[in-house]
């Protein structure tokens, strides 16, 4: 877990609505192991980061979106047969970026496949993740990564409230 500089995060900005990269007032990221317990780690990291930034009021909505994005990366973003033991590498990364008026949560995984919104019937236990992301964030999207790091980034943007904590 840690804070990253703007040069590392610049590929994450591609595809987002126009926001000057120089206007970033905070960024933090967390490597997540390829195990479903990582969703709990991502939520805890999100809670701590939002609290440090004075944005605790956003936690419920942002944590729901982070949970869905990380779950989708675990379910669909890892190659078949990827090791999932305690010593497995961390191919999934959660990034939180704060601008003056916006917050972006972005999840990077090794898959280059586009996310697909499912159509779940009322009794289905899964298939609503991207619908929830769309419902609780102001906008979302994704883009493939190019260069040395392969895969994709799925992101969700939240407008920040004027009055915080």
From TrEMBL:
CDD domains listed in its UniProt record: HATPase_RsbW-like (cd16936)
Superkingdom of the source? Bacteria
Q: Name one GO molecular function term.
A: ATP binding
Provide the alphabetized UniProt keywords. Answer: ATP-binding, Kinase, Nucleotide-binding, Serine/threonine-protein kinase, Transferase
Occurrences of domain Histidine kinase/HSP90-like ATPase (ranges): 33-142
Which InterPro entries does the record match to this protein? Anti-sigma-factor_SerPK (IPR050267), HATPase_C_sf (IPR036890), HATPase_dom (IPR003594)
Entries under PANTHER family matching the protein: ANTI-SIGMA-F FACTOR RSBW (PTHR35526:SF3), ANTI-SIGMA-F FACTOR RSBW-RELATED (PTHR35526)
The protein depicted here goes by the name ATP-binding protein
Species source reads Streptomyces gamaensis
């Amino acid at each position: 877990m840690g804070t990253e500089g703007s040069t590392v995060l610049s590929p994450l900005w591609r595809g987002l609505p126009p926001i000057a990269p120089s206007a970033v007032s905070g960024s933090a990221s967390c490597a997540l192991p390829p195990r479903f317990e990582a969703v709990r780690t991502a939520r805890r990291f999100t809670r701590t980061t939002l609290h440090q930034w004075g944005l605790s009021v956003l936690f419920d909505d942002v944590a729901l979106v982070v949970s869905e994005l990380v779950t989708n990366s675990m379910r669909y973003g890892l190659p078949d047969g990827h090791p999932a033991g305690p010593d497995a590498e961390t191919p999934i990364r959660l990034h939180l970026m704060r601008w003056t008026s916006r917050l972006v949560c972005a999840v990077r995984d090794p898959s280059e496949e586009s996310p697909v919104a499912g159509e779940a019937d009322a009794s289905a236990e899964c298939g609503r993740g991207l619908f929830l992301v769309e419902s609780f964030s102001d906008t979302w999207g994704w883009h493939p990564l190019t260069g040395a790091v392969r895969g994709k980034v799925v992101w969700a943007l939240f407008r920040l409230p004027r009055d915080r904590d």
